[in-house]
Specification:
Elements (H helix, E strand, L loop, with lengths): L2 H10 L3 H28 L4 H12 L7
């Protein structure tokens, strides 16, 4: 049994209250992990090209205020 299969099995055994608590924890964990990934990508310059394209489109009048 892989680690993931073990986790899946354990999650299936949670009570409703435990599952609710796990969902809350996982949403926060996943969100924080996503934020870290974005920050790493920004530092590594992986988003520079997309940012420049967006700024160029804005300068060309192809955007609007939200």
């Amino acid at each position: 049994m892989t680690k993931v299969q073990k986790i899946e099995d354990d999650v299936r055994k949670l009570s409703r209250d435990e599952l609710l608590a796990f969902r809350r924890w996982f949403r926060e964990y996943d969100s924080d992990d996503w934020d870290r990934q974005i920050e790493e990508d920004v530092r590594a310059g992986k988003l520079d090209k997309l940012a420049e394209e967006a700024l160029a489109a804005h300068r060309a009048g192809n955007s609007q205020e939200l």
